[in-house]
Amino acid sequence: xxxxxxxxxxxxxLHVRVITKGAPLPWNDYSMGVGCGGNIDTxxxxxxxxxxSPTVTVNNGQRNFPYKTSESDPEVFCISAHTTAHDVxxxxxLDWSSGDRHGTVHINDNGAPFRTSADAGRPGYDYPLGxxxxxxxxT
Length: 139
Hints:
The chain is an all-beta fold. Helices cover 0% and strands 48% of the residues. The radius of gyration is 17 Å and the shape is globular. The termini are far apart. The relative contact order is 0.32.
């Protein structure tokens, strides 16, 4: 998240909205290695989509909301959403304020909800960072 001007924006809260929840997809499970990023500290959050009312929880002992951002002071959030039993379509909303202005930003996949499906009982394949091929995951 990054402001578009010099004024500070307070990022008040991040919320999960489950749109649909159904049976896990019967597809293979593929996982890519992670790459490197810029020189910005990342705030890490967890979302348990199996929870009846999922919430965004902080990871690694870091502090929870609020955070602040501006044009010259971005915040990077890493959201790890998971499920062991469902196929879930979901999105996020971020509440913000700046002076007497406030609002909500909807966060999704270019207008569509994110989608996370359980992988229990499905064949899994990993593509390690720096690798050249998919490798079957041992179960």
